[in-house]
Design a protein that fits this description.
With 226 residues, the chain is α/β, with parallel strands linked by helices. Helix content is 47%, strand content 15%. About 4% of the residues have low confidence. Pfam families: adh_short.
Length: 226
Amino acid sequence: MRQALPLANTLTLIPGGTRGIGLATAKLFARNGSRVVVLGRDQERIKHVLEKELAPIHGSNSSVEHLGFQCDVSNQEDIERTIKELGKVAPVDYMVNSAGITRDSLLIAHASQDIENVISTNLMGTIWLNKAVVKGMMRRKRGSIINISSVVGLQGNIGQSVYSASKSAIIGTQGANEVSLSKWWTEKRFEGGFSKSLSKEVGSRNITVNVIAPGYIDTDMTSILD
């Protein structure tokens, strides 16, 4: 008898799942049996990911149908509309929120619109996504959320003061105080700030909320740093 995959019969939502860390995460969850739903802004990119990246994992005979929704995570109404549509398909068991952008610049020269875009996507987008998804999890009394932050949110970086602010708010100072610098690079897993507070609000409903703060990873977003 074929052994069931560990995440069979689950649904995993991955905002930012069309590129970089999000795409790698989507493929990992799919390989372990979860039905994956990716969110992104580019409809053509979503189509490519579904057809060329996720569908081949289980082959043409698989009954698992992965999905994608076009969604601007900086827009609360867009998020709520998307989660409502997704709710008609299946409830969310897991969310790995990897949606994020960077617009690097020294603060003194930072364009106001770029500042607003980074904060609205990375921080407010995280808040709106968690708020929308956790409602269903609370009704079902189970679920797990992982918010992707960044090591820059812990130690800062020249030209990334705004990006750092948007990521550190997800982690909070608790993680930085409790984990030594050497462990930042080896463990890269923290909970604090927004995510820690939310975990205390929903923990009694069997819902976990955690943070992963990766170091430098070669992705489309970091390619501009080369």
